Predict the 3D structure of the following.
Amino acid sequence: MNQQPSQQVEKGSRYVVAVDGPAGAGKGAVCRAVAQRYGFSYLDTGSIYRAVALLSLNNPLSDQEALGCLAAQMPFEFRAVEGAGFRAFLGGEDVTVALREERVGLRASQVAAVPQVRQALLTFQRRYGGSQNIILDGRDTGSVVWPDADLKIFLTASLDERAKRRALELQQKGETVSFHKIRERIAQRDEQDSSRAHAPLAPAPDARRVDTTLLTLEQSIDRVADLVDEMVGNKPR
Ligand code: DC
């Protein structure tokens, strides 16, 4: 997912920035903006888990091995579409919008607990972007996918704030879901993502923590950009 950079960054071997955190902390919006600012590739690793979830909702499999095979073989890719940026494709079908459905997010959190699925998706994540500088977001990108990333960030916000943002997002889409219900769903995902045995959501020991509870989106982007500037040597540490 490449954009026109406003700040060019060069390095012999590529920079990897890994951003992890709970659902609704703003990782996607922040990483997209930072990727655009520095001309990095961007990988939303959650969308890969969501693709497995979508497939498994349409074709329920209870067996973990079978789910792992489904993940390893799924024809998933991001493609640049004229005038529409990068879109997610499963087979020949554009699933960008379907992947964002609530039921898909909840199911993604379940399939993500299956070790065979996590293993199958590692290769995709590590190969993505080839030799380009990359920023990726998810739950274990700094702890498991890229343990030697140049910069690791744990981006978080309070549960109430994340629920408030999600409610606003749904409202803007014309969907009405009670705040209580949204908060409950996010708490459920936090619990599932943090308590699983394999690669649970947790900050890597060397991650820089950014709490966005009291920050606007612009301020959150600037905080992360400051850390990228430190990484590339634009600013002293
Ligand atoms: O970030 P998201 O809401 O799109 O992620 C959907 C689910 O996928 C999330 O609840 C947990 C899982 N996930 C994961 O386990 N590891 C990742 N690197 C990214 C997402």
Notes: Residues 66 and 188 are 25 Å apart (CA to CA). The beta strands are 16-20, 41-44, 76-81, 85-90, 93-94, 134-138, 151-156, 208-211. The chain is about 45% helix and 15% strand.
